[in-house]
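QUALITY CONTROL LOG
STEP: pairwise intake check
CHECKER ROLE: data steward
CRITERIA: each record must contain a sequence immediately followed by its structure tokens, with no blank fields

ENTRY 1 OF 2
RESULT FIELD BELOW
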Amino acid sequence: MLKKLYGILGANGWEETENTVEVRSPFDNRLISRVCLASEEDISRAIGKAALAFESTKKFSSRARRDNCLGVARGIRDRFDELVEVLSLEAGKPLKTSRMEVERAVSTFEIASGEAQRLGGEVIPVDITPMAEPYKAITRRFPIGPASFISPYNWPLNLVAHKVAPALAVGSTFILKPATSTPLTSLLLAEVILENCRLPQGSIHVLPCGREEAGLFATDPRLKIISFTGSPEVGWKLKERAGKKKVVLELGGNAAAVVHHDADLKEAVARCVAGSFSYAGQVCISVQRILLHEKIYEEFKEKFINETEKLRVGDPMDEATDVGPMIDLANVERLAEWISEAEKRGARGLTGNRHSGTLFWPTVLENVPSDCRINCQEAFGPVAVLIRYSSFREAVDIVNDSEYGLQAGIFTRDAHNIFYAFENLEVGGVIAGDVPTTRVDNMPYGGVKNSGFGREGVKYAIEDMTEWRVLVMKNMGERVE
């Protein structure tokens, strides 16, 4: 059962502060709980404790780091139903989507437990010249220091896990700023970590706060890396302020799926419906643009509309619901404005385009001018734009005509087309045979252009949270007594 008030996890453990924020259901606006907000002073003290604790955690054995990750995975599993409920309450996710997120979080920590045992190095054959012959060298990765994490509202458990799990795997301490609209899941995860990990006091901090106070997450020199997931506007500004620390940015997207004339249409339709409207499109790799070869355009359109109209929109706590609410009314109004703008310029609505409160029915558009915001910006809502093309090369060019480049999906049986897409699409990931809304938690994940900087995925996040150190030894050959 949720408490009426949650404190921050600060320098002195769980603390209550003067300023609080209400956490309300995006579906019916009911009050779920209240959460304390951290001040700049709270954040600064927490950073100091994290820096102090790092002197201990950086010495953890691989076994200790592995066991901590496995402990969190077990702890999440033990509180599975509770986390599902909280996700659906505060984020408005349908229960089936929340269950998938909790399962993925378990998997992410399990993956991290394996990577914790592979944090090694290599032997370098430096004896490549006569002068270097007396030398031997080995390398090893070491954690770089306390980490700074800022997470978004849309995946408040698994996107946090993708920052926290690699940190535990390398022996790093951290401070975390969850989204103020969905902070409860992060606070519950902190409880799980404290209950299931052997960590010195001050190793982890969860600090909900305002944007102004969050500046320290980027600027404080005691923090050695910042990993941010959110809007490009905020992300690039944080990078400018980050100084010498490492920066990882997972930003917006304008994802496209290309359906060629040789594709399995039944499969492509089903996957595009799921990819476009899961979690009301509030996913950075949601299928926003669907490019259809002219030979199959009309057939796909008819089937896609039919399947879209079968989706049930409503209460996320109802097991039958497929599409829940958007996060708030401001985003509903923004999306409606973007659609209206496109329709005034000749776009045609095929289904949906109605809303009630924060519910927005899945909407399909065609004939959208390419420079309309609903086509060229990140919609972050349940909207799919259908686009006709005549050749695969043209489709790739259309996908690339975007300031974003996170992931793209292609449906084709032609291996030549698959490799052409892989070599020419300006994205961080190409998904062949499925939608761009496909992410497996051990794969590299990140974008190019305005979609980000660096990569997530446990192994790849570990690379950013560690640095190479080389040991060069002279005259350390065999000694015979």
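ENTRY 2 OF 2
RESULT FIELD BELOW
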Amino acid sequence: MPRPAANAEHSMLHLRFAVVKVGLISFWVIVLARTAWVQLLEGRRYAKMAEQRYLSVIRVEPERGLIRDRNGEPLVLNRTVFSLAADPKLIEAPNRVAQRLAALLGGQASEYQAKLRQEDTRFVWLRRGLSRETAERIRDLEIPGLVLVRESKRAYPHGRLASPVLGFVGAENRGLSGLELAYDEKLRGTPGVAYLQRDARRGRYYEVSHPAQEAVPGCDLILTLDYSLQEIAEEELEATLDRFRAESGTVIIVRPSTGEILALAESPSFDPARAGEYPPERWKIRAISDPYEPGSTFKLVTMSSVLRERMLRPEDVIPVYNGKMVYKGKLIQDVQAHRQLTVQQVFEVSSNVGTAQLGLRLPPVSLYAMARAFGFGACTEVELPGEVPGSVRHPSEWSGWTPAMMSIGYEVSVTPLQLAMAYAAVANDGILMKPHIVREIRRRDGKVEWRFRPEPVRRVLDTETVQTLKAFLRGVVERGTGVNAKVPGLRVYGKTGTAQRYDPSLASYKNVGYVASFVGFAEAEEDTLLILAVVNNPKGAYYGSIVAAPLFRRILVRALRLPNVVVPNPEPTHLPRRETMVVHNSESVIVPDVTNRTPEVAERILRDLGLDVKKVGEGSLVVRQEPEPGFEVPTDSKVSLYLSAPPVRAGNTAVVPDLVGRTLREAIATLAARGLTAEIQGSGMVVEQWPQAGKVVPKGTCCRLRCLPVRKLAANLLD
């Protein structure tokens, strides 16, 4: 028989084993259950907590689209810069870090302290747009919590060229004016997302291959502008404003058959890289935002209405009362007195008296309808911000003076672009085109998202009326007020304008100044160029025939030397070679003031007006001239320039300007304005100068400028 004690001991052993077994099983069940709970139910929460502890999410700005001219010339590029940010929770000594950043980056330490002490964020910007060298110095500080982000910043390889049209961007790389504003959504692209992870040992951030959303670059804009024509227009406009000490000016070059704007030059403009340093008035595109009373250039509308109504024939004669007429108590007068003129002659010599009489004979609705048909009183809808419609009042709102005043270009306001497109309609067989300045919107992969197509607005005039008007415009240049626009061998058509400016605060035209203008075209079968020149408030001479017509001619002659511009139809006589296209005519001109200029600049100004030049003496400055400024002389007259080396004395010194980063033409113009000359090495943009900026030197000093081609600089920026 088994022993009872042994059985009891064996049973107890089994019981203990069973308890241990159950305990072990229960322990592992609990562990597995807890693991499942953590992984399956709370895993996402813990993962998110870890990610928040070790990751920072930032917005990655896309590369902004480029802007190029019609031939691919870069007008606006991007260059790589760095921006500094911080995670305030990782900055251990905000005061000390702020002091070090202020010493390195400039600014007040208190500004950095305020940002570094923010408790409600893990990411705050400290400074944007840093150079690569500055970014390296920040890395060398090895301060935990600082973040360097690679970004892009706008670069302008041609300086101020077309700056009002191109516009500029703000600190956040968003467009604030011009095309940068109008096409901001297309240019800026789609932002991405990047993750920065903290190094547990040092608390610094670095980029990781964490899942992220790539930024999509913005689209490129291809403009209708031609860089070479734009540069010519700006250079000649600047020279004219300087010559006549004018307040401002606008030049527009249009292709009438398509409505493409090939150049839109305005002065004064601004440096888009430092736009904030200029008054907002400089940012405006005055060609579409500043309407003015056009004066005689508006007589095109009056004559078009007269011809359409078939009131009179071009050869019909009307009295002009020796150039003076009183209408409802207002004196209307002409510059030159005539007893009578034909209808065509009224237009050619720009008779206010004759045109006002024609306007009074017209049914009011006819003059109004013709103005609206040409596009006045409505926006052209060009792809630029800030356009205004101008003002053409309905006949029901006219005063008793309106029929006479509107017919000669008063009591109506237009923009330069409206005026250019109206004359372009005459050049385009009577068809008004919608103006365009954007040719293509192109993605970075090369796919064209949108492409310009010519858009006819309406037919304004029939072909017969167009031919008659062109004969009028031709007569203006051949024997009327526009003879200074004549180019030998070419058929040039145009109209002068000289308008008194109105001051609404004074309710007066007196002592407010003038607007001188000329609009014309040289006809070609494939590539007619229409040029409008408007000069605001010139001093001394102020007639459009003296101020604006020569500006038109110089632009046209230089444009015809470009390889991509078609030569207009010649006169029946032979067309002179482009290299020898020099204007001489039998009319008179007013001698400009060329003293205190270099002989080369003075000679170019005089020869452009058809005057001969004789230099007397030697030197680098014109100190006296004969005849004196302001005298009216026949073209081909000789002007004697007395030269001298300027002595060094008080009042005859100049401070050398900072020219590095400016285009060559800007640098030369700046030096000339201070009585300094230039010795040039290379071409393009100034990269080095001597003497250094700020040095006081005698006027007439020659400054050495080293330049690099703009294309090379642009390529460097793209890299």
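INTAKE CHECK: passed for both entries
DESCRIPTIVE NOTE, ENTRY 2: Confidence is low (pLDDT under 50) at residues 200-211, 573-586, 646-650, 713-719.
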